[in-house]
Amino acid sequence: MSYLVFGGQNGWIGQQIIAILKSQGKEVHPARARIEDRAAIIKDIEEYKPKYILNCAGVTGRPNVDWCEDHKQETIRSNVIGTLNLVDVAFLHNLKVTNFATGCIFEYDEKHPLGSGVGFTEEENPNFTSSFYSKTKGVVEQLLSNYPNVLTLRVRMPISDDLSPRNFITKISKYAKVVNIPNSMTVLHDLLPVSIDMTEKGLTGIINFTNPGVISHNEILDLYKQYIDPNFKYTNFSLDEQAKILKAGRSNNQLDTKKFSALYPNVPHIKESIVGVFQRMAKNLKDYPPNGIPPVAAK
Predict the structure, then answer these.
(1) What pairs with residue 187 in β-bridges?
(2) What are 224-275's pLDDT values in tens digits?
(3) Strand order of the sheet with strand 2-6?
(4) Would residue 237 count as lying in a domain?
């Protein structure tokens, strides 16, 4: 039962997936190939002969998705050509791929108003193209729907139990000002182990891979102040004010999780889960000061 993980050598989520798999005693190999390199993908698959492939690779931009606005060819090469390369090669080898994608391809609209509780379903097409990153992700999701060997997991604003710079909590705690909008989010402690179970069950198609419900930036930062830094302060500003300092727009939405919850009813609501995140984070920061990375918890 061998796993091959693309984006496992340097990727944030990929490294966590590998840690969980190893803690479960499973054979796992971080892929050496870059997903843009079709020949190298074939070489890795033929050498490691995996039963399962997980794709955590792709370009998100540093320090944020605004990078993609000035590096469009690199973004296409990784997020579109690379992902299609991997899935197509796996298809030709009769292998399935669990693809960690994004739910940042939607924005609240008339059919899904902010605060309505009406979320975007797996069957709906992307409606957000105000960032080049999201545009590439929406395009590749639609192309991947033609492949029967793919499980596409729509991750949103991923949250971890540490203060990694990739953690959504860390990001917003560093901003001078934040918008206060409820969003669907993915707590990695809850959902990464589930992704392994889904992979082993051979599930395919698209899944909104977030905790049920939504939570606002302010609610998260209030908990940050309560559990992590009592002296922390933050200020809000509007979407229009935010747009003036960004190169690209930002997606805000609620994803419908009925399909996911029917499969995994024990995944907690985001407002319940986030309290556990901060409790674990406070303990991790105490046990691994000042910048230690705690081991990934596996269920």
Answers:
(1) 159
(2) 999 999 999 999 987 776 756 666 668 799 999 999 999 999 999 999 999 9
(3) 27-30, 2-6, 52-55, 97-102, 150-155, 205-208
(4) no
Tokens of 195: 């992704």
CATH code of the domain containing 56: 3.40.50.720
Distance CA(61)–CA(68), nearest Å, equals 6
Evaluate if pTM is beyond 0.85.
yes
d(CA 293, CA 274): 19
| Residue 113 maps to a domain | yes
CA distance 157 to 219: 14
Q: Residue 95 falls within a domain, yes or no? A: yes
Decide: 29 and 3 in contact? Cβ < 8 Å: yes
Domain that residue 195 falls in: 2-158+185-212+252-268
In a domain, 179, yes or no: no
